[in-house]
Structures are given as C-alpha cells and as structure tokens.
Specification:
The protein is α+β, with helices and mostly antiparallel strands. Helix content is about 30%, strand content about 35%. It has one domain (about 1-155): Gcn5-related N-acetyltransferase (GNAT) (Aminopeptidase, 3-Layer(aba) Sandwich). The chain has four helices and nine strands, in the order E-H-E-E-E-E-E-H-E-H-E-H-E. The protein has a seven-stranded mixed sheet, covered by helices on one side. Strands 2-3 form a two-stranded antiparallel sheet. Bound molecules: coenzyme A.
Length: about 160
C-alpha cells in the first residue's frame, strides 16, 4: 500500500533518511533538501514503512528528491514511482525528473526501465555537493568513485 506522507511521519523520516543517506539532508545540484519537510509517499507492508519517496514541485516540473526501498525487488520502488507520477500529472507537471550519481548503477537501471531517459551529465558536480554535505562518501556502490550527477527525466503527457 502506498499513501501520502503525513505530518506524524516527519520524525521517522528524519531518522530513516539519516540512516540511508548519512545525514538528515540531501545535497543535489547545489541545493540542500530536507526530505522530512517535503511532500512524499510511504510504502507500507503490514502497517510498517518499507519505502519512501520525497519530491518537490516547482513550476511545471516535479523533482524526485529521495527514493528508498527497504525490501528490494518486491515492487516497492515501482509503486512509489507510479504514485509520484500520478501526483505530478495531477499537479499539471510536464516533467518528472531526478538526479542520481554515476556510481548508482541500480538506480540508472531502475529508472531507465521505467521510462526515464538521461537528460544531462554534470561532471564533478558531487564535489560541490560534498562542500554542502561533507558526509557524502568518496566511493560509492561497486567501489566506483562518486563524481558526477546524472539527470534523468520522464516527460508526462
Ligand atoms: C532503486 C530502488 C529504490 C528500487 O527499489 P525496489 O523496491 O527494489 O524496486 P522494485 O522492486 O520496484 O524494482 C526492482 C527490481 O525488482 C523487480 N521486481 C519488482 N517486483 C518484483 C516482485 N514482486 N518479485 C520479484 N522481483 C520484482 C523489478 O523487475 C525490478 O527489476 P528491474 O529494475 O530490472 O525491472 C532501491 O534499489 C533503493 O532503495 N536503492 C537505494 C537508494 C537509491 O539509490 N535511490 C535512488 C536514487 S534517488
């Protein structure tokens, strides 16, 4: 089951994001976001959260700020993407987009298989993000150095 984030979720979201992303904030394209203050969707199984997506609406675009699943391979991430896609469409957005990093091969596979296309590569952008958020590690998934921000987008009809 997927439902919108509620006010009472804010505390666990803060803890959950800290666990998954080393701090309660995330830094992308030169901006610091506080996921616990953003709108989002929670995926629940047996009444317990197993996934979280947070997003931000700006003009005719909806940016996915975080997406995390604690039950990989069971459809949680896909259900959360479907929920934000509907919310973005309902809000009149033309574009759903996000930024991930060059090491995150799982995310690149996941999003591309769900209709997202590569929109831009910002070389060495993670160095700037690291100045805002020093907790970002130098080495990421698969031992790949984390350097670049990769922008993916899905145009909505
Ligand atoms: C990316 C991420 C959110 C995907 O979440 P997920 O819950 O594993 O997503 P899904 O289960 O919907 O899909 C993952 C795979 O499982 C498969 N799957 C979906 N439902 C399934 C089911 N019922 N049984 C078995 N496999 C299933 C899907 O086919 C998919 O494989 P594919 O991408 O090759 O098509 C998750 O890997 C994650 O939390 N990553 C770390 C955080 C991160 O990097 N976030 C993205 C950057 S913003």
């Amino acid at each position: 089951m997927v439902r919108p984030v509620r006010a009472e979720d804010r505390d666990w979201i803060r803890r959950f994001i800290t666990e998954r992303w080393s701090a309660e904030v995330v830094a992308v394209h030169g901006v610091i976001y506080r996921p616990h203050e953003l709108p989002g969707f929670v995926a629940e199984q047996a009444g317990k959260p197993v996934g979280l997506l947070t997003y931000q609406l700006a003009g005719d675009a909806c940016e996915i700020i975080t997406l995390d699943s604690t039950r990989p391979g069971m459809g949680v991430g896909t259900a959360l993407i479907e929920a934000v896609r509907e919310a973005a469409r309902a809000a009149g957005c033309r574009r759903l987009w996000l930024v991930t990093t060059n090491d995150n091969l799982e995310a690149l596979r996941f999003y591309q298989k769900r209709g997202f296309v590569l929109a831009a590569v910002h070389r060495n952008a993670v160095a700037a993000a690291r100045r805002l958020k020093p907790e970002i590690s130098r080495t990421g998934a698969h031992g790949i150095p984390i350097r670049d921000e990769i922008e993916l987008e899905l145009l909505l009809d």
